[in-house]
Amino acid sequence: MKHLLSIADLDRAAIEGLLDLADHFTEVLERDIPKVPALRGMTVATLFFETSTRTRLSFEKAAKALSADVLNFNPSGSSLSKGESLKDTVLTVQAMGTDLMVVRHGAVGAPARVASWVDCPVINGGDGAHQHPTQALLDALTLRRRFGKLDGLRVAIVGDIRNSRVARSNIDAFTALGAAVTLVAPPTLLPLEIGSYPVSTSTELESILGDLDVIYLLRVQLERGSGPVLPSLPEYVARYGLDRRRFGLLGKEAVVMHPGPMNRGIEIASDVADDPRALITDQVSNGVATRMAVMFRLLTGKGQP
Amino acid sequence: MIAIHNARVLTPDGPIDTDLTVREGAVNSLSAGQAETHLDARGALVGPGFVDLHCHLREPGFEWKEDIRSGSKAAAAGGYTALVAMPNTNPAIDSGHLARFVADRGRAAGLVEVAPAGAITMGRTGTSLAHLDELFEAGVRIFTDDGVGVADAGLLRHAMEYLAERGGVVAQHAEDAGLARGGHMHEGVVSSRLGIRGLPSLAEEVMVARDLALVAHTGVRYHVMHVSSRGSIELVAGAKGAGLTVTAEVTPHHLSFDHSRVETMEPGFKMYPPLRTETDVTALGKALLNGTIDAVATDHAPHAPHECEVPFEEAPRGVIGLETAAAAVNTAIEPAPMTLFEKMSVTPALIAGLSGQGRWIEEGSPANLVIFDPDASWVPQGFVSKSQNSPFRGVKLRGKVMATIFCGRITYQALQ
User: Fold this and answer.
1) Residue A118 C-alpha from the chain's centroid
2) Does B107 lie at the interface with A, CB-CB under 8 angstroms?
């Protein structure tokens, strides 16, 4: 594995290998001194051309827990705002000496493009509506730690699936690991050409809640770049919002997930978000271990620490 | 005087194996005469120089991408002897003096006939009519806001009424702005998986259908630029069946590639309209051969290399095509020689009203000629154009331009 650009590039064994490694790093993170010297002397650059809090911090924490040095890049106030191209920016960072780049960008394929220009491994930290592979891995890790395996798990992904890189990478990861995925959204938020995906779909949420092990909620916005996709947010909340009553329709073992940032009161009611069966903070914790695993694999080539 | 030996000459009566002599800008005889320059065609076709209904020469305003001289050189290398230059320059060609500037620059370069197209609306902003009379007086026959469609049907109706009376052609870049908004590639299986917003075929078909209702009402000569979808082909076929004065063009890239190419994320596969499905590609080839589509046009759209070293969604619109067009068409649909030249020279010259172009070869016909070997294979690597954004780089093509003659002078020569 030279880069991590898309879950679609990984087979089941490769995904499971990374999850095994991530499992190990969750133990490391529970130690008194949650740090190992694996990447000492190496430099990781986090190049977030699109704003992010949790993902950038998570990568930074992961790199530091592996004893790597971290270079952070902030597009506002950078030479990017003076018109420097993406290519020149990454070549400049490379020339300073970096061993790995994490790239988030609003344009699909930007991390792959960067990977073609630089010599070091590149991790896709989210590209447009395309892929967010470390999110999918941390979500798979969260489910595997909760349920033991994903085979046969019934997962619904609810919300703005059409415009979601999280949904695209999670569909790839969950189905590769044997889960049965249902996409739930109004027609304007379902992916086009849905028949080409290995999933089922529903434009209705309530009737399927009792048959789920996992409900995975996505952030919803009224406006997208292509114009309004919903009549109004209250109408969305009325049909698709996970409130306390609908939460009660889920099976007793079912869990709630959300990649963040949440719109409390829209896709998820505030009390549901704070319920013990909402795994949202587990997802965040597992994100650090997952990113440690990916960086470790890319920089050492090893499947075991 | 130029003598061409061992040629398969495309005459009004079909191909004839003969020699050919050019003198003072005209074909002097279909035999070998006295000449200073001798070209051995080695059995290749000699036909009327290609005529491009649709190219972007970028001058004035975007000379770092291409200019009229560099575009003319690229055209000569592609076997062209005439070009219709699109008006989406800066400033847009919306007034007579600007059209004259383009034509004059073309004459100064002297490598092809450069016929300026004029804008339909001032500044191509879609709000008021361009100086249509002035443009017509300056020789413009093709009117278009290419790059965008004319969204306002009321304004377009007025342009059509005006140009129907004048005898101009309304050429539409058919793309409904609402349906196309934010799109970077064909809306379909590939765009859905990549998470790239798509331009549906509907964006083209909706505007063609609307325009055809206006054409029926106004009687204007209407030309659909770069047809890309099977649905648009059906609309054009229906309009022709109903007797409307409608023509259509297709690009070599739409005949050659489908949207799966975008998976490479190479900006060389980004253009508007986008590459569509395999079904569309097949339908386009069939429509070109059966006459529903009248002509091949390149939509040569140069962008500088540094502008293309960006993620796909940020890449500029369009690809170059002048140097590969004939070979690409020959490779994609394997037309008979007369058909290839009908689609790439004779018919486009008629649509653009260029009387010195696109004439089957006989004694006295203008010496705007191309020597084209339909059996020679080659792999394009670099290009004469200032820009290099070609989807055909590295693609094996069959058919090669061996020499181009414009006004009796050799403007390109690959032959020894």
Assistant:
1) 24
2) no
